[in-house]
Amino acid sequence: MCDVRFRVCKFRINPPGSDDEWEVLITNLDRNEYPLARMKEIYHLRWGIETSFRELKYDLSGIQFHSKKDQFVYMEIYAHFAMYNAVSLSIIASSKPYTQGKYQYQIDFKMACCIWRRYFSISDNSDKNFTQLLLDVAFYLTPIRPGRKDKRNLKVKLVVGFPYRLAA
């Protein structure tokens, strides 16, 4: 048996007066060195990492792997990282958020992923095609809506295992 010590930190993640939303963290960091205010600050700094992992998992289909061997799974993970970097850089190169009407707009990350996949499937990856890729990426815009209150309706998906390939 080993002695494991941890603490539970609970803090509000929205401004007072709005609906109560709390975050609960479990940590083994020292209470004196990392008080609750510091833990909240660290969590806020980490939020960009959390959103990038969400994009890697869902927008780039990084949840299901096509191999059982560790080496090939690592190759798929590295390919997803490279694709994430390429898509992110193309979004940065293609546009800045701009305002038109009521909302400010940004490029849709998921559609940019689809466009990049199509670009890599073309055998002739010339400069002309790359310019067209950047134009296509800039075409798909989504509004930036700060303070949005709608809850997302998520559907539970079942895990697809490897035996389905053997049933044929």
TrEMBL record:
<feature type="domain" description="Transposase IS4-like">
    <location>
        <begin position="12"/>
        <end position="85"/>
    </location>
</feature>
<dbReference type="Pfam" id="PF01609">
    <property type="entry name" value="DDE_Tnp_1"/>
</dbReference>
<dbReference type="GO" id="GO:0004803">
    <property type="term" value="F:transposase activity"/>
</dbReference>
<dbReference type="GO" id="GO:0003677">
    <property type="term" value="F:DNA binding"/>
</dbReference>
<dbReference type="InterPro" id="IPR012337">
    <property type="entry name" value="RNaseH-like_sf"/>
</dbReference>
<protein>
    <submittedName>
        <fullName>Transposase</fullName>
    </submittedName>
</protein>
<dbReference type="InterPro" id="IPR002559">
    <property type="entry name" value="Transposase_11"/>
</dbReference>
<dbReference type="GO" id="GO:0006313">
    <property type="term" value="P:DNA transposition"/>
</dbReference>
